[in-house]
Design a protein that fits this description.
200 residues; Rossmann fold; 37% strand; elongated
Length: 200
C-alpha cells in the first residue's frame, strides 16, 4: 500500500475508508457474519411456461465483495470492520433472487447460472448500489440495479428495467444497517419477480 488509510469510528462499528485495515502478525480480527432476511414473496399460479437462469450480478468496487459498504459522504466509500456478509454481496443478492422466484411459483423453473441447467431465458443484473449512505436528507440503505431479460436462443433482450429502493436507517449501528438492507431488498426483489413473470 502506497498511501495512508484513515479509520473512522461510527456508532457501534468501525468504518475503514479505502477498504483496507492491517493487523499484527498472527492476529485474526473477529468477524461477525450477517445475512439479509428473505423477502416475503406471495405465491400464485404459474404465469409462464419457460425456465429462467439468474446470473451473478455485475457490481463495481467496493460492493463487489463480502464487506458491508458505507458511503459516509458523496463519492467516498468504506466498509464496516469486523462484519461481513455470508457471501460476496452480488452472490448473496443472486441467491435471494433465485429463492424468491422459487417461492413465487410464477415460472416453470429457475436456477442460478452456475447450475448449468438449460433454460429459455437469462436474467442479467447490474448492481449499481448496495450500500448504506449518510446523506443530507437522512441516513439510508440504497439498493439499485438494472435487470435485463434475455432470450437464450436468439440472445435478444426481451425486456429491461431499472429497480431502486431507499430504506431510511433508524440509527448508524450495524444491526440497524442490516435491517435497512432487509427492507430495501424486500421492496425490489418482489417487484423484480412480478416484472419478469409478466414479460412476454
Amino acid at each position: 500500500m502506497n498511501r495512508l488509510f484513515r479509520i473512522v469510528t461510527v456508532a457501534g462499528a468501525t468504518l475503514v475508508l479505502a477498504g483496507c485495515i492491517t493487523v499484527g502478525a498472527g492476529e485474526r480480527p473477529e468477524v461477525s457474519l450477517r445475512a439479509i432476511a428473505e423477502p416475503a414473496i406471495e405465491s400464485g399460479p404459474q404465469r409462464a411456461d419457460w425456465h429462467l437462469l439468474v446470473d451473478v450480478p455485475k457490481a463495481p468496487e467496493p460492493i463487489d465483495g463480502p464487506r458491508i459498504v458505507l458511503s459516509p459522504r458523496p463519492g467516498e466509500f468504506g466498509v464496516f470492520a469486523g462484519v461481513r456478509w455470508t457471501d460476496h454481496a452480488p452472490r448473496h443478492f443472486q441467491a435471494h433472487v433465485v429463492r424468491a422466484f422459487e417461492r413465487s411459483g410464477r415460472l416453470a423453473g429457475v436456477a442460478p447460472v452456475a447450475s448449468s441447467a438449460r433454460a429459455d431465458r437469462l436474467l442479467e443484473l447490474d448492481l449499481d448500489a448496495f450500500h448504506a449512505a449518510y446523506e443530507a436528507d437522512g441516513d439510508a440503505v440504497r439498493v439499485a440495479f438494472t435487470a435485463r431479460l434475455i432470450d437464450a436462443r436468439s440472445n435478444r433482450i426481451v425486456g429491461s428495467r431499472h429497480f431502486e429502493a431507499r430504506a431510511p436507517l433508524e440509527s448508524r449501528r450495524i444491526d440497524a444497517v442490516v435491517t435497512g438492507f432487509d427492507r430495501a431488498v424486500a421492496e425490489v426483489v418482489p417487484a423484480l419477480v412480478e416484472w419478469v413473470s409478466n414479460v412476454q
